[in-house]
Sequence to fold (59 residues):
Amino acid sequence: MEASLTRVKNEPDLVAPGWTLYSMCRESVEFRQGDRQRRHTRLVHVPSPDGWSKQMLWP
Fold:
């Protein structure tokens, strides 16, 4: 990462002028699996002291 930042500083034309960096802090991650009868499966993963815990959401 440090090498990339140094390169961008040394070569300012390397990045397009309108380019924007977004940084996100994840509080949870949700996955959805579709079903032909619209009974979708929804799983949410949330951080826990031991890693991530998984919970099933109703539709």
